[in-house]
Structure formats: structure tokens, C-alpha cells
Amino acid sequence: MNGSINEIIKAVVxxxxxxxxxxxxxLEQGIFAVEHPTELSKGDYxxxxxxxxxxxxxxxxxxxxxALVGHITKELHPDILKVEVAGPGFINFYLSxxxxxxxxxxxxxxxxxxxxxxxxxxxxxxxxxxxxxxFKDFHIGHMMNNTIGEALSRIFEKGGAxxxxxxxxxxxxxxxxxxxxxxxxxxxxxxxxSMGKAYPHGxxxxxxxxxxxxxxxxxxxxxxxxxxxxxxxxxxxxxQVSLAYFETMYARLGSDFDFHFYESEAGVIGKEIVxxxxxxxxxKSQGAVIFHGEDVGLHTRVFLNTEGLPTYEAKEVGxxxxxxxxxxxxxxxxxxxxxxxxxxxxxxxxxxxxxxxLDGKLRHLSHGVxxxxxxxxxxxxxGVISAESFIDEVxxxxxxxxxxxxxxxxxxxxxxxxEMIGIGAIKYWILKQSIGKDIIFDKEKALSLDGDxxxxxxxxxxxxxSVLRKAKEEGIETDIESDVTVEECELSRKLYRYPEVIxxxxxxxxxxxxxxxxxEIASAFNHFYAVTPIVIKNDPSSGKRVALxxxxxxxMKNGLSLLGIGVxxxx
Length: 571
Prior knowledge:
Layout: H1 5-19, E1 34-35, E2 45-47, H2 49-57, H3 61-74, E3 80-86, E4 90-95, H4 97-110, E5 124-128, H5 140-158, E6 162-169, H6 174-186, H7 192-208, H8 210-225, H9 229-253, E7 259-262, H10 263-276, E8 283-285, E9 288-291, E10 301-304, H11 312-326, E11 331-337, H12 341-354, E12 362-367, E13 370-372, E14 375-376, H13 387-404, H14 414-431, E15 439-440, H15 443-446, H16 454-473, H17 498-508, H18 511-531, H19 542-562
Parallel strand pairs: 5-6, 5-11, 6-7, 11-12, 13-15
Antiparallel strand pairs: 1-2, 2-4, 3-4, 8-9, 9-10, 13-14
Helix pairs in contact: 1-3, 2-3, 4-19, 6-7, 6-8, 7-8, 10-11, 11-12, 13-14, 16-18, 16-19, 17-18, 18-19
């Protein structure tokens, strides 16, 4: 039933249009819209059908709207209470109390499965995200990428797709050589902390000292050749330490990858493919191998450098082969920062020429930059902000707020709750706006309980759980069967929309759609909680109000789970 009421409304509108003489062949999908009005006072759904077809029928839009309403109301669907003409020819639909009763029952019956869709059934998605590089820090940019990638993966799964998660590690390349150079020159043992110091040292030397640059290039070549025992030892230890550390961060952020891919593997394969396609796809130029992008309205990029080593571009070609061989997919979505947009425009065209069967299956989604009030972080200068230190800082701020409050939370439970709230605050802040925009994280606002924050949603959920605990203590059972009408309010009139929101988020690749919706229903619940006595002994309607709270808690928990945000029992 849920998610189908809008289809019912579309069907009755089409039937009415047919009755008014609109030819069936002109009733193509998309000619008219059925949407939710911005204000509930204007109904639960609204359509512009009369406006859309007034020119086709050469009639006044208001007159046509009135005629359509006449047809619709002759045999009014039981889920529709009334239909009205509004403004210049819009038609507004008000849903019936019976519909809201059924919607609450449906939410409770389906539980954690509520919102599951079939729009992507039989579709296989490869989603690649996070991509931290060994020998460098796991910084807040990786955390932003991970948050977006994990949320989209969960949303696609909710849409019915089979999703495989992958992350791709740059375990070879100049950045590795710079770090090993820095470790050697600074005399440091391999650790996450020492590599964080070694990389900026090596990068500065590479840019400012010609002799150092030659040494780093030589180290890079030896890494590929595995020809130097001391460098091999540093490389193996650094790679092992980095990858183990990344696993702790994935666990902390709630990600679990099906596949880990590495540039060291992709590079070998990519080099062979590029060399075998010199002529039909790639060409030699001044000792390098390039893809001449100008031929397709793009720009030229190097795939093998003058040393004969594969560049990032060639490695991406190798990665494409690894992916298609390991998991035949319908869509491969790679999520990166928007600074790589031009790179992917060229590389995806080149891959499509090498592997024609992948043409149209490769997608690139780019996001903005996560900034703090101090500005953009930079790993080139050593000013990188690690995700770990950032999360710890936010978590500490939550702990301080918890210690200042008088809420009854056991001391031993506080660290885990603070972690859940802190990470939830960060993820909400990242996901609340469209993916392509830069984000400035405001810690005070992100931790506010007053709205537009992750803790605001989490607190609304814990407040609902508190109501349900009280209902249990009073012996009031959830009522989803009686004819008592559910309380008609903003909350009951919005909960049923959850599957539609998921469908939009899937279609638009837009987690912010879900964030906005959850914030709206949290506000609606808090208003309901403030003005409506919910748990009242010997009140026959109390069980129905408790059912509405259960439905809210279900939708909120389901939605937060898709965003990768946990829900504490108390806070």
C-alpha cells in the first residue's frame, strides 16, 4: 500500500483526463506531475494536470480542473477524503483518516523492511569510495567520501539493488616514494605517526631540491621493480601498518568493504592493456604513451610516462578490467572529490574504447571539500587533519555536554554514546546538502539539539523510545487494529512518504533528500510530543497514539541507518 497512493492518484487523474477527451497517446509519463504541496493546508498531493492539458484541449485551466474533479469525485477512492480546485487550476487531494490508519499499521508490520523498494531489482552496483592511500593519513576528506559512499550504497540496496562495496588504495606511486624518502632522511621507524611526518618532508624536498627529486624518482622506480632490500622492507612494513589502520577507521565509520583494490595490481594490468592498444586507442608521444582527448572534445592525458611506468590513468584502465572480471555489474559508481572531474572525463572515454562492453556503465560522482573554520586541509604541506583526531575532538565535545547535563546516563556508557552522537553529527553535516558543494563544519551547530543536526534526529528517536517505555509501564499496548482514528497531525500525514523519499534519493543519487525528510518528521514528532498527551490510562485512543510513536521511531531508525547514523537508547 505504501508508495502506491501516488500511483492511485495518477491513475484517477488519467481516467478523468480521458473522460474529458485527452487522447490516450498524449498521456505520456511526465506531462503532468503529482507532488506534495509545500503546505499541508493545501492537501497531501497536488497535480498540475489541468494546467498541463488546458492548451491541448483549448480550455480554461480552472474550468478543466473543475471538470476533472467532477469525474474524480463520482467514485472517490476510499483512501481519498476530498479533492479541491486551487489557484490557477491546481487540483489538491486530501487523504482519508482510513489511509493514515493503514499507513501506521503498515509501517509497524513491516518494521525495518519498511521503505524497501523494487525499482533496482536485478541491478548490480559496484560502488567505489573512501580510497585512502597507504603511507599517508586517513584524513577528513576520506571520511567525507566514506560517508557519502556508504550512504549511497545503503540507499541503492534499499532500492532493491545488489551492491558490492570497494575501496582502492594507492599503494605505489610518487607519494609512497616521498614518504619512504622522508622516513630514511628523518631516521624514523614505520608508524602511522611517523609516516604523517615523513610525507610532507619528502614532498617539500621533491619540490624544492633537485637532488632530492632525483632520489625520490629513483626510489619510486625501485618500488615498482622491488629491487632494493632496504626499500622493500620499509615499503612492506608501511603498507601493512597503513592498511591495518584503515580497517580501524572503516569499523569506526560503519563501513565493510567487499573488495580492496590496489594500484600495485592495477598498474601492472593497466600497463599491459595500454601497450596492447597503442595505435587503436593510445599513441606514443615524446617517449610517453598518451590518449589524445582532443579527438573527442576533451584533453590529452599521459597513460605511461617516459620511464615506462603506468600513471594514475593507466592504473584506472587496469582497475576497470579487475572490476569487470571479478563482478559483472550494471553500474560502476566511483566517488571522488570534484578535483578529479577532468581526470575521469578522459579516463572513462578511454576505458570505453578499450572495453566497449563497459560503455555507459561507468559513472563518476564528485563531491566538494570538507572545510573547518580554519579553512581547507592539505596533505601536501603537512596541514592535514586526520579523521581520527577530528572524530575524537567532536566526541570530546559531546562528552563535555553530557557531563554538564543532568541526564541519567551511566558513566561506563558515555564514551560509546558520545562516539555515536559525534559521528552522527559529522555524517549529518556532510549529507545534509547536495553532494557537489563544499562544506564548512560548524561544531556548535552540528551538536545542537535544536534542529538541523544529527543529534536532533537522534534525540527525537530516544524521546520516542522513552514514550514507549512509559506506555509499557502503564500497560498500554500498541493499537493497530481498532477503528479508532489515528491522531491527524503533521506527523501522521508525513510518515507514509518515506518510500517516496527513498525512491527520489535512489533516482537522484541524493542522500540529502532523506536528511531533509527525517529532519521534517523529527520536528513533527517533537510538536506532537509537546502538544498531545500520548500515554493516558483507560483512554481508548491512547493505544493508537502510541502506535503513531512506534511508526515514527521505526521510520527514523530506518532512515538514520541508511545514512550510517546510529541511534542510542539514551542521550
